Amino acid sequence: MVRSSCPARSGLPTVGKVNPYGIYDIGRNEGFVNVGTDHDTPVFAVASIRSWWQTMGRGAYPDATQLLITADCGGSNAARTRLWKVELQRFAAESGLTITVNHFPPGTSKWNKIEHRLFSQITKNWRGRPLLNYETIVNLIANTRTATGLHVDCRLDTNPYPTGITISTKAMKEFRRLHVRASEYHGEWNYTVLPDAIVEAAETVDESPDP
Known about the structure:
The protein is an alpha+beta fold. The chain contains five helices and nine strands, in the order E-E-E-E-H-E-H-E-H-H-E-H-E-E.
């Protein structure tokens, strides 16, 4: 899974920078890209994962009770971003999935297979093609194919994702106690989020990252 962004050029004021957030299923060689038109936030990142689950994942794995996510260590799904964990737990509670996250260490995001098997192919497919509007971007991504059978679904996400949502140290400490289980091996990068009740831990004033 990875987050990326690219400019879309047009004379229309509504088209500027977009945020393609991708999910890649290694076993099925399938990709899902949610193209956001607002801010790239943790809420947007989890909304993208939720969309993948609802449109592709749930049908492919109807009996699943667990989900393993490998993610970059920075960006909207950063290991130290508190809101990422809170929103991920919200999705876990909605879906009933126990979600384990393994972050690639800082500086090693290119190890992620999504870079080599999904986004590199998308880049090849739209190479030399002017990204004039949202429709062009979505179609170019969705039409990405490879000889090994890669299939990509792509959706346009025009929902607003405001910035500035923060979580206090006190609230996060209680949240981790109830809903997060850190791995014995580098628990700051590897942890499991439990599908308990949906929590409301946001809209406070402390913007410091998760330790």
